[in-house]
Amino acid sequence: MNSRAIKGDIDSRIFNAVNTTLLVITMIVIIVPLWNVVVSSFASSRALAEGGYIFWPSELSLENYQAVFRDSSIWQAFFISISKTVIGVVTHVFFCAMVAYGLSKKYVRGRKLYVSMGVITMFFSGGMIPTYLLIKDLGLLDSFWVYIIPALLSYYDVVILMNFFRGVPEALEESAKIDGAGDWKVFLKIFIPLSMPAMATIALFNGVGQWNDFMTTKLYVTNEALYPLQMKLYEIIVQSQTQSMQNIGGSVVIETATKGVQLATIVITTLPIVIIYPLLQRYFISGMMLGAVKE
User: Fold this and answer.
1) What's this model's pTM, rounded to 2 decimal places?
2) Fewest CB within 10 angstroms: 54, 106, 122, 195, which?
3) pLDDT digits (tens, 9 = 90+) for 48-76
């Protein structure tokens, strides 16, 4: 073995060792705080007051979760969150796919104008007050559809799908049209099935955004029956903090109870995403790669 091969082997081992070390450090930095939040959410007020633990509290309790679910309206909030996430993701992905399918065709009249208009929306928005006035004029205030209609289109997602559609062989579309298929049939029977990885990627991003969104509720919804889970949990945290501030004696029990409720809300909020993400991970990776390729 010559000196160049030996040097290459040493460099490879050093590179692998550094990568392994960085991976271990990253996993520790991510997993340890996450584990601490989860186990702390199951800790009793006394264990939280004692502190001094990372991996396991001295006393376990469900009192924090009982405090969160004590409000019966929390189940209505669950239903609203699930409904707006599912409906919002399906309508958003389908609408973006329709727009992307049309803009991916070079023969469409005004295509460059539409693309330019879409690019402008990627960098500029109307602002909060004009958007509020528009939502009001459309009659979407205090309506469930305020979660769905304004979120129908994202040009970022349209760009991903446009690049994906351009990679579909034209022979497939031509053969389908020779057999008598129209644009709708080509879109639904050929492009939609072939673009599932890209759509899963967009669905994951949009689903996380829909699930975590509560600013839409704060700005446009006053009817508590339409509050999603995020807004209800936000109210629980605010009420807990208010009770803690009103505690003149500075009781440690109330302060730790407030902290426990906050930790429980974090776990409840993130749990659905943690469950769903691994199921879509393989589509997420392939969709990002395919959507990013442009000839």
Assistant:
1) 0.75
2) 106
3) 777 666 677 777 888 888 877 777 777 88
Determine how many CB atoms are found less than 10 A away from the CB of residue 87: 15
Amino acid at 70: R
Long-range contacts at 116-120 (CB < 8 A, ≥ 24 apart): 118/155, 118/158, 118/159, 119/155
Beta strand extents in the chain (DSSP E only):
none
Picking from 270, 261, 267, the residue whose alpha carbon sits closest to that of residue 44 is 261
Residue 38: partners with Cβ closer than 8 Å, 6 or more residues away: 267
Q: Which long-range contacts (CB under 8 A, 24 or more apart) does 47-56 make?
A: 48/256, 48/259, 48/260, 49/252, 49/253, 49/255, 49/256
Alpha helix segments (H runs only) across 140-251: 155-166, 170-178, 183-186, 192-194, 196-212, 215-220, 229-245
Compute φ and ψ for 24, nearest 5 degrees.
-65, -45
Distance CA 238, CA 227 (A): 15
Average pLDDT rounded to a whole number, residues 67-91: 86
Residue 147 to residue 206: CA distance in whole angstroms: 12
Tokens 């497939």 sit on residue: 172
